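Holo prediction. Input below; ligand is zinc ion.
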Amino acid sequence: MKYFYTLALCLLISIQVTAQNQDGFYATMSLHHAKALAKDVPNEIEILSTFRNEAAVWMTQTGSHKLHDRILTHGPGYIYRNSQEEAVTAIQNPQNRLADNTRAALDFSITEDATVIPTLDLIQTQNIEDHILELENYGTRYHNRASATQAAVDLKTKWEEMAASYGRTDVSVRLFNHSNTQMPSVILTIAGAEIPDEYVIVGGHLDSTSNQGNDNAPGADDDASGIATITEATRALFEVGFVPKRTIEVMAYAAEEIGLVGSNEIASQYAANNVNVVAVSQFDMTLFNGSSNDVSFISDFTSGELTSYMMSLLDHYNASGEHQVTYSTSVCNYGCSDHASWTGQGYMAAFPFEANFGQHNGNIHSTGDMFSLTNTASHATKFAKLCAEFLIEVAKNNEVLAVNDVLASSIYVTIQDGILSYDFTASQKEVTSIQLYSIKGQEVYTTTTVSERDQVTLPTLSTGVHIATFNTENNTTPIVKKLIVN
Ligand SMILES: [Zn+2]
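Structure of the complex:
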């Protein structure tokens, strides 16, 4: 340990001399890649310290580009660090501290069929396609371009409007401003109704890059596809009227391509504030169908437990039929995407990827990363389904508002054009009173009646999810139905 410290100090002195004329920064990366790069371009990298198979380095921008040339990679292949001390400390704390992680509260149960199954039918491939094209049309989303910041600002508006269109007053969207990039991240929060201080997070990165010049970096697959995937999964959750017990956050990270900068700042802040994040899933590249299996779960820098839970979700919900999704596992590389920022802070993260690593889209990080390459988002749709399953099963349906299983098919309830229609004749239940609640649990309407079927004219209601409670004669348990007012 002392040896490394002394070595690092000596190197620091030499680096400071070099650094004066160069555009360099601190990072951590795999020792193997660091050594290869140092041999190839000795002036562009200094290895400051090593621990096991990781290295803390100082590297120039040229060095980081050489890393891309040398190693066929997705993602930066390194993690940006603010200082030498941070870089050295980061590798001495093993990146995956799950063994002594006391934060995890996830029980890995699969219980939410009543919500998940209707949600799968709501996910629209067309919405994913439209959103990818929207993002591609910025021309570039390279983190230091004005268009990247604009994309973040516009995504905030898009998510706010999406939540508002379903009347979701429990949803907020914020920009997260960073120290090491001018581009903000975007975070959508669905407040947990029962356990708001436990978080489940899905994310993708909003920025793009191109080895051929960053003024033309469409980034359709990498990673407009991930942003479109998590957006459509979230929209489907709104459409089905899902109200989570735990808080859900949907994140569009800034500046992933320059060393996971956005996600690293967010995960560091969450860890510093002791935020209880129970599970994270990354969605980075979902468009290109390059392997015989649909989903490749990345097995390095991820949680094995959480990964096998996501496999169980696919076994449970997607084993066959129109929603079938097949899967395998693959390894990525050092810091290949934002999940590594979360595992680096001791949180459980998983990363379902578009193909086995190496069989993924060869056009990423180029001007050719365009939607027209696949011309369909059918592959991404499978990831949106997995994303929705993950969010619903980890966050869990708020029991107070849960759809009552008793109802199933024998009871018919709708709200249309301000009229509540119900028909309980098939179940021979006579309704004695009805209460209607807003999503916040406020009673907005009540009536007493004696009928198996009726049409009730309602007062003007706010749009979005409402809960109707039907009390019936000889039945102590009210029948609860979730309804959407348009
Ligand atoms: Zn990416």
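The longest strand covers residues 195-205. That is the main takeaway for now.
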